[in-house]
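task queued by scheduler; priority normal; single chain, no ligands, no partner chains; default sampling; output format set to structure tokens
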Amino acid sequence: MTVRGVIVDLDGTVYHGDRLLPGAAAAIDRVRERGLSLCFFSNNPLYDGTEYVERLATMGVDVRPGEACSSAVVTREYLDANHAGDGVFVVGAPSLRDRVRTTRAKLVSDPRAADALLASWTDEFHYRDMVDALRALDDETVFLGTDPDRTFPDEDGNPTPGSGAIIRAISGVVERDPDLVLGKPSDVAVEAALERVGCSAEECLVVGDRLDTDVAMGERAGMQTVLVRSGVSDDADVERSEVTPDHVVDSLADVDGVLDAIR
């Protein structure tokens, strides 16, 4: 296998909260020294690619404009391409509503006016949100989620409920699975990542801390996969999982050794 591009997760891989993980910035420098292209991809639905570029640069990571993507970006692009003119009701953070307003879809405040329900993370998730979901969803309403992450690591590495927890809560009350969850490991996310990294899936290495998103995306697409132990998943999770990473390392700082092994 010849590696031409590397897709790097962010939360739990490059940083925890606002804390850069040890060796992460130097690891990115070494990837660049090899002449490989990069795409930083987060399932966090709160920020777009430009905001992630600014955040990484502030942390001292060598990042270039256009190299970052997120579930917020693929959600915006998907709505723009597939739901022009449709009413979208959002259960999620205010920033997600702002992104819906930038698309050709129409943000609605009345759940009964929804052609699509979009569910995502919000730290203000409430019983009334489940009531709204019941009002919004009927047989003709599309049910979308921004990302499946049940948890994400906080600044100390402790798990915190994520979008997946809220999507599952809504699924439980409406007795229906989402029609599509747009972040990793979806085909929509794969397409967005490959467009930014500029190579085929077979020429990509994906590095992340989650088996069910980062590694699953790479496995399904035919990429080489690296699980880092610095975030959500650990060795016990690997033993239980049907998703098998090609490489398991302690942190992003060890990716140079993986590249040596497979090039």
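post-processing summary
- The mean pLDDT is 95.
- The CA atoms of residues 16 and 157 lie 6 Å apart.
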